[in-house]
Queue: 3 jobs
Job 1
Amino acid sequence: MNKNIFKLLIAFLIVAGTIKNTDAQKRRTLDTPSTVIYALPQTVLKVDVIAKKTILKKGPFADYAQKYLGISDIVKANGTSWQLISAELTGKGEVDPQQFHKIVTSVDYEPSLVSLTPEGLIRGFNLKNNRSEDIEREEIVLSKDDVNIEYGKFSIDPIIKYKEDTIYKVVETDTAFVKVPVLEKQALTKSLEEKAEEAAHEIFKLRKRRFKILTANYEVLPPDGKAYQIIVDELAKLENEYLSLFIGKKVSVHKSFQFSYVPKKGENGGVIFRMSPQNGPVDVSDLGGRPIRIDFKNRNTTEELTILPTAGTDPQKQIKYRISGMADVTISNGKSTLLKKRMPIAQFGKIVSMPAEVLLNENYAIEFYPDLGSIKNVSK
């Protein structure tokens, strides 16, 4: 505990005792005792994970990439892959279900001077400015994961071809029936290989046009360098779209996940989430993913702290608060360390108390860290 805060707190208790009788006469005595219940926090570790999802889409002409373009490095099957990008670790104070306490009114003080968070965590006593609490809002980012590769979207040639066949019609004459040859045009859908051949032909045409522009091999050229750049970029973009029909597409999107873990004394950690090849970061119960562990080492910073005895004191006239501990927290993926951080853990510390008579003097205020339950400030 900070020595200056401790000295100020002792001085405050002494002053409170000297003015006890005067203040008690000024206060209104309640006929029926009332009670304020508050909670001390426990630290919940929040791990925010960014993972990259890569979507693989096979092109419709993948089987003809080697034949018409001489390309073998292609996407051979549809699929999905995941990769961990980053992990951030923070501590959030939440109500400790084992640490609910209450203060009962007396002749000298009233618990209405106690300030709490909306969750019931202790904020302080005699705080004149009750600042509004920040409200956490969940942000949902919608992303479209579909990868569409369609030949008809890029083709400048019809996907239907026409074939002329000779058929014979029987024509009646004056003396006999005669077979007369007639040409008939039939509409046929092009085969997949024919479409692939046309697409490959368009790729080579685009390359030739880009080459001729870059070598100024046209009678009419773009008027300036900017126009040159636009034309070249658009030709390259169109060529890449045609190429994707053969080599496929890889589209990556980043997704955010959050996982929580409550450290407990006497344990070293555990699995916080799993990494699935198909679904990315998943819950611990999904055994299809490899485990991502969180481990912590208690620094025992409050182990030697001497606590003043409170035997024989009514616990309902004691104000409980925490002196938080410290721990080294590590997040690992197998033998690889993703993150290491030293941070305060409320439940690794100790619970101490002060007499409720500190509420006597309204000129003094005590403020706590709501996320840790420890004293932040004693002010006048």
Job 2
Amino acid sequence: MQFLMERLVNRTEPDMGLAPPFDLAAAIAAQIQRIVECRPYIGPGGARVCEFGMPPIVDTGIGLSDHERYGQRLLAGIVRYEPRLIGPRLEWVATGRALRPHTLVIHGSIIEEDEPVVFRFELPCPDDMS
């Protein structure tokens, strides 16, 4: 299943040629990344305008228990905004690094060609992308 924007980007029209192949796992990973990168907006007087997104992880604290609370909120966001991921669960994995001792991995399954497929996505760190 493709979301609306994915269908618009991947459409096939006579003038456009063939649509690129749709990669469900990549689309789900991109949606999870959007959830993490977007910030929910709370308007004046505490009015919640947009619930989509996550607060910065550094706002939650620095301990593993703080990170686990962040992970539970992220899991709730994934369940709500990424219904194509079946049975999502989170795992904090030790990295062995002093400045980033843990990384977050999202597990679950997806359905491709009527078969369940294992899904695993490690949230990238901005340091890893450069």
Job 3
Amino acid sequence: MPSWSRFWQQLASRRVRRAWGLASDGQDWALMGLSFHKVVGVRVQAMEKITPTGSDHAAFGFSDGLRRVGVRARQQVSVALAEDKVMAGVLELPAELPRDDWASEVQLEVAQVLGLAPDEVNFDFEADPVSQGSLTRVHWVGCDQVQILALRDEVRTAGWHLDSVEPAWYAAHRAVCHLKGGLDSLLTQAPQDWQFDLTVDEDLGQWQGLGRAPVEWNVLLKQALQSAAGPRLVASGLALKAWL
């Protein structure tokens, strides 16, 4: 899966013992803290539900609750963008176009779709592995840069540091690919019992081990996202990026 680094570039690669992810849960927010253990791998260590308060006038409404979690100063957190906050599309580029030029072409496409200036968008993309012939198909996602900056400011207001921003779907996909037991474990385990295997090949996904086709797997993932565990799954996928 792509890293979507252009949404919010991580400052540096680092070794961590605990990582945090924050995802929208209706009017509330789901905060998941994952920790790394040499024996069991990565598992859930903390799980918080953040409910906006009347005194929280920030754009997303999580700053007061995030501040009250009480972790050490400047703790880093990754945040998900909900599906309705992100645009996606496919751009066909000449096969002979140098890869170094793809970013500028995608940026112009995203800006045109969103009706914004090129420097007012955040985006990322990856090439379709089955592109053939004279054209290369590039899948892109993008959003108004204002959303990213607002997230950064609200995280800072809470005394945390924004590590990365990512579309919720891709964070959920990552979480399920590495979740021990795959999608089936969502029905049999409480979120606080989730464990993640970092050795799983994310490009293959857990669906192969479950005997399911990719299309069926995606349908089940969409259903999982609509369940009560969905926001926690997204938040967990965000936190997992710290070790992948």
